[in-house]
Amino acid sequence: MSLILCELGTGKWERCNELVQMLCHYPVMGLKENTMYQFRVCAVNQAGVGRPSKLSNPIVTSDPMEPSRTMVVKVDRGREIVITKDQLESQIRVPFSPTDVRVCELSDTYVVMCWTEPDPRGKEPLTYFVERSIAGKESWHLASLDMTISATRFAAFDLQKGMAYCFRVRSVNKYGISDPSEPSQPVSLGEALGVPAAPHCVQAIKDTERSILLMWKEPKNTEGILGYYLYSNELGSSEWKTINNKPVSSTRFSVHGLRTNKQYVFRVKSVGRAGNSRYSEESEPILVQPAKLAPSAPSAISLLHCTGTEMMIGWRAPVNNGGDPVHGYYLDQREKSQSTWSEVNVKPVKERVYTGVITSSVSSQPTWSESANRLDLVRAFLCERWTMPEPGCPYDLELREVRQESLVLLWAEPLYQGQSQITGYVVEISEGVESEDWTSVTQEPIIDTYLKVSGLQAGQTYRLRVCATNSAGVGRPSLPTDPITAQTDSATREVEIGVDNDGFIFLSFEAPETLDQIQCEWKKNYRQAIDAGRAHMETKQNKSVLTFSAAAEEDLGLYTAEVIDKPDISSSFNFTAEDLERLMELSWHIRNPLIALRSEGWQVDVSEQGSVRLWLQTEPLSNAAELHMILNDREISSTPARKINFDKANGLVEILFDQLSKEDEGSYTAQFKDGRAKNQFTLVLVDEKFRQTLAKSAAKRRDWKRRSGPYFEEFLSWTVTDDCELIMKCKVTNMNKDTKMKWFKDGVEITQVVNEPSGVFTFTVPQVTKKEAGMYKAVVADGRGEDESILELTDNEFERLMRCLSRNCALSAGPMRIQSTAAGFKLYCSLKYYLSYMKTSWHFKERRIDLDERTKPGSSMQKLWIEIFNPTENDKGKYTLEMFDGQETHRRSLDLSGQAFADALLEYQRLKQVEIAEKNRARVTKGLPDVVAIMEGKSLCLTCFAEGDPMPEMFWLKNDREIVSVGRFSVARDNGCTTLTILSVCMEDSGNYSVFVRNTHGSQTVNVTVSVYKHGEKPRADALEM
């Protein structure tokens, strides 16, 4: 074996023994004081080291002598003072020698020496040096070497067999080293231990219903035995189970967790230091049952009636029957004044009521169970005829169904009724074990001889008693019950009601699992026996079932179940009319079961290839299930064109048609039968439903063929973007390099189609007009086949497109703005673009603006507006533009009031003045040419017309200097006309001339260049020759 240890919290494992040990124990040295360690062991063989064992429990190292050095002194008020001997020995410096060096453990590989620490010890911490010498020689040398020894034990490993050694010890503290102790007696290594012998005489004895007592004898040689391992085997099984994980040191052990009424055998192993023994011989088989003991004493003796010559005595059954039903009771009697008891009955009586002839006037009647100790005398009963008018006391009080909040009390009616019939009972309760404070449980007397007492407090102890009443009053009370605590046993089971697999209503009661075999008694209303003709009982192991032959109203009532000889294990159930009605309906369904449907009736599926599948699924059916398929009142079966499949395990029925035809129209009915269960389900596949299925099958078949070549994965469709663009697209799949795609509109090919690598083709229309209406067709083809997609963008579809465009156009409208003009205000909204399909209207103060002289709406491709001419203060308010896209109205508003109106009005007035000034300012109406060429010596005449209000002034300028009439220059003005005449022009007259007109609203200047050339020369090419 290899031993390894770990200081708790470090996670580091270290090996303890350098050499492999054969024994199953090993002394570990060199540990730290007050430190927690864990250990584990690895087995070693020639192949190597095995897996480590399970971890040991953590163990703390401590000084075992420390308690003997501590003294506790008690002072006033419960205080304590702890004094150690070390504090009283502070004068000790160099320590004294240890004493009593001796052998405390011996094996064939090592010796463990121990000693007694010096006394007095001293205050300073002590360690020890261990020395050894061969016996008979004084050659002492250090055995502990560099090891620090704090404990009073030391294990020496390096000894030679056959040699005798002596050991001595020195004490060490910080002041020095003591003298050596007296040497030990000579010691040598012992003989190697062998595997211990096996135990013998293994005997199993009955104990309880779930345990046995196992006993055995130890081997003759017990040296090295650490304990015993126990094993059990349930008779008939080949598996042996280990009973204990840790060796048992004694030779007896109670084995728990066994199964009641099962037979077991046992065997034992000895556990030694050198290994485990072989198995002992097996014990004799034993049946697990409670051991039979003498019953406990009866109790609650009471006098039930007395005639003067006879006394009727009753008593309570023993609390413990000793594991076997009580066979009977013996009664003894004696007179009160005497001490000698005499037998009343020679043979045991089974009932707990005894009527005896009394010869003495005063007697006492103790009773006891067979095999039990005699019941102590409680009181003396006077043998005197009863003549009181009130009834006697009830007797035989029993408790049933004890729960946290309730219990049931049963009793027997008094044997003495008094002078009239008993009319009822008063049940009283007292809290506590000895309390005599009795209170009535019910306000009125009860008629039955049982009562369920409710409203108890969990964990509280109670006693109960009963008094009978008649017309004369309340009789004497019964003896109280034994104290009972209101609590529910964790193993308690209540009576359950249900319906079995054959449809019979039953009541079921299950006892705790610890009881494998029980005898259960069922009663009605706690007293009435069950009519064998109405119900029968069956008990198996710990479960009892009461099954009604034909439950009816006469079976209603309170049913109780209790385990015989264990009345504390009991329960009840009130079988009501509501239960009967509910369970009778369930019983009918069980006796006439219907096969349940899992699918939602018949389902019709059409595959991608166009084949049709009719199917339905029920709950799983057995192999004996039958199916009859009916079509139009005629049973059908599988044919080449119509296959019928029936998967019984999954309850699946399917009819497969490769190609649906007119002959397959009709009503399909699946009739199932599985044992007693049956059902049928019908599919009506006629008229419109059949035509739709037939059309869908044909369409999918065509589509399957179409997909053999390139085909449209997504057919032609259109969308409208946020920018109000129309995009038509389709997606083609299964293409190759030879595949061609063409688009057409009304038969004319469209070339502006965009092809994306993913197979998506798109055609974009930036602005939609009525010209876009028409039939669009896309055709894709190659050598494998051809497919086409058609989009009819006409009528309703084009109307839907326009609505969608109108909506996007309306949503693209920006906020309403105002622009002042010389004529008034212009309110407008900008859009992506405007469609005439979209209906617009303008509103002022929530009222529609009608066309008049002062308002004029207008529109362009990207703007909507309304003009308000000559605005006034009355035009203040909220203006709204409503745009209706065919389904929804979109609004844009502007509140033209306050500062916004003032600013707009001011700008309007300014622009109006600018317009007036521009209209009336001076301006040249008939201008001059840019360049004029004239030959030298000729006369030049330049005329200019102007207008304005008032009539403008007109001036001629040469090189920005005014020309006046003088010499050859003459300036004439006449009603908006001015003429400049130059006679006999010369070369010096060339230059820049201009006419300048002005009035109060403005001015204008028009320039003209005069170029004079000599005779014989050519005029300028860009000049107007005069």
UniProtKB/TrEMBL annotation:
This is Myomesin 3. Residues 710-794, 936-1011 form the Ig-like domain. It comes from Ameiurus melas. Residues 1-64, 97-192, 195-291, 393-491 form the Fibronectin type-III domain. One of its GO terms (biological process) is cardiac muscle cell development. It comes from the Eukaryota. Keywords: Immunoglobulin domain, Repeat. InterPro entries: FN3_dom, FN3_sf, Ig-like_dom, Ig-like_dom_sf, Ig-like_fold, Ig_I-set, Ig_sub, Ig_sub2. Pfam families: fn3, I-set.
